[in-house]
Amino acid sequence: MPAVSNITLAEINRIYNIKPEYYNYVPFYVIITFCTIIAVVLIMVNWICSCCHEHSKYWNDPDTGNRFASLIFVRKAKQRPLDALY
Where do the structural domains in the chain lie, given as residue ranges? Predict the structure, then answer.
């Protein structure tokens, strides 16, 4: 059975010429946070504009046949969908 030597990881890296791995992930987290903030702002602007727009009653009414406007509250439309083939 071979004897276990007291070689440290730094010595192994030096012997085999292994470069240390990059472990600073701060720029990654900054970019992810920035993109998340932009996405939240865009979603809020979209939501605010959909509530205050002159056609908001049409887009929020599930009975108009617009099945893409309200994905949360889905029920059968009283009118044919707008994209139905004739």
Answer: 9-64
